[in-house]
Design brief:
Blueprint lengths: L2 H8 L10 H13 L11 H12 L2 E5 L10 E3 L19 H23 L6 H14 L1 H5 L2 H7 L3 H7 L5 E2 L2 E2 L1 H14 L5
Antiparallel strand pairs: 1-2, 3-4
Length: 194
């Protein structure tokens, strides 16, 4: 059993399915005593990358945003800017190596933003991976002000999982692809396979 699985197994017995900081410290202390490894800093990465890659796809020639038909122009694995922060322009071409490098760096940037927004709230690797995927798609500003984040920080994990579906629009229109992506992200958040 992993430490994440231990927390998930105990969560239903916590008051309102929420752990206090004291609860987390005690559970971590016991898990340390039992020799369970702590969740590594990048344990969330496979969850985020599998979801992002599935839904963004990789294109090496810049293309217009599907929701707006124009800006922001996108390239690689859904990047709207290069490594210097310059917006992608029509006609931009990347190699596969450039796209992969940008994805790796970009996902880490979003993970740092998600960590800051979480403000130390108890989070499993799967939950973080799903939230990084969401933030990668909707932006850190939207993620930071989301009901999903507020519910997660309050320990309302079922409520937070239900909030992924709220982010199904681009340019005010519901997009079937976003509906499916959000369903996948909610599944990942709940620790279920894609």
């Amino acid at each position: 059993m992993t430490r994440t699985a231990l927390f998930d197994a105990i969560r239903p017995y916590a008051p309102e399915r929420r752990f206090s900081e004291g609860d987390i410290s005690v559970i971590d202390m016991l898990a340390d005593k039992w020799g369970m490894p702590r969740v590594g800093t990048d344990d969330w990465l496979p969850y985020a990358l599998s979801t992002i890659k599935k839904w963004e796809g990789c294109k090496l020639l810049a293309y217009p945003d599907p929701g707006t038909g124009g800006k922001p122009w996108t390239i690689g694995w859904g990047s709207t800017s290069d490594s210097a922060g310059k917006p992608i322009e029509p006609g931009t071409r990347w190699t596969q190596a450039e796209a992969d490098q940008r994805l790796a760096a970009h996902v880490q940037e979003f993970a740092r933003g998600v960590d800051k927004a979480l403000a130390g709230a108890a989070t499993t690797a799967a939950q973080k991976g799903a939230m990084v995927s969401l933030a990668y798609n909707i932006g850190l500003g939207n993620f930071g002000s989301s009901t999903l984040l507020r519910k997660h920080r309050a320990g309302d994990y079922d409520g937070a999982a239900g909030q992924f579906a709220a982010w199904n629009k681009a340019a005010g229109k519901v997009l079937p692809g976003l509906v499916k992506r959000r369903a996948d992200e909610a599944r990942v958040y709940q620790g279920l396979p894609l």
